[in-house]
Amino acid sequence: MQRQRTACILFAFTITTSALTEAADFADLFNGRNLDGWTQRNGTATYRIEADTIVGRTAEGSPNSFLCTDQLYGDFELKFDVKVDTALNSGVQIRSQTAGGTPTGRVNGPQVEISLDGMAGYVYGEAAGGWMTPDGDRKAHQHFKDGKWNAYRIVAEGNRIQTWINGQQISDLTHAERYKSHPKGFIGLQVHGIGAGQGPYEVRWRNLKLLDLTK
What we know:
The chain has one helix at residues 2-25, and strands at residues 27-28, 38-41, 46-50, 53-57, 65-69, 76-84, 90-98, 107-114, 123-126, 130-131, 150-157, 160-165, 168-174, 186-191, 202-212.
C-alpha cells in the first residue's frame, strides 16, 4: 500500500510540475490593467478593458481596425479565448506588418479567421492576396460556438502555420511562395469594418498567451 501511495504522489508531482513549467513558459500579452505594449492601427473601432478581457467595438463606417502588439514575433505558439457577436466577422493577425512600415500604413499579413460561417480558424491574407488556405482545403465546420468562449491555439514555425479551435485542428498550412514576405511581425486583434446603419457589434479576447519558439 505504501508503495502505491508513493507512486501516486510522484505521479501527481510530475503532472503538477509539468503544468507549472508549461504555464511559466507562456508570456501574457495582456497585463489585465491597461493596453501598454499595444498600439491601434487603421480604423476607428474602440478597444476597452473589462476585467480580464479586451473588448473591441465596431464604429459605423470605419474600415478594419487592429489593436497590435508593439513587439514582433516570428516562431511562436499563441493561445487565447474569443467570443464574438453573431453578426460580426473578426480575426487575429499574426506575423503582420504595415504598408511601408509606417504607423498609419495598411495592416497586412496572415489572419486567423474568427467567424460563425464555418470558416473560423482558417488563414486569410489580410491585404495580402485573400485566402492563404486553398479553397479545396477549407471545409465548413461547427467547432466555433455561437455565444460561447472559444479556445484558439496557433503554432507558427518557419513556413508552417497550424490552428486549433476548442481542441480540434482546423488548418495545417504551408506558406505559398508569395507569403514568405511575412516571416515575422506583430499580432493584431481585428475589429472588422461595418457599413452605415450597422452595429454596433463587439468581439472579446482573454487569456492571450504566447510561447516564443524562436531558436
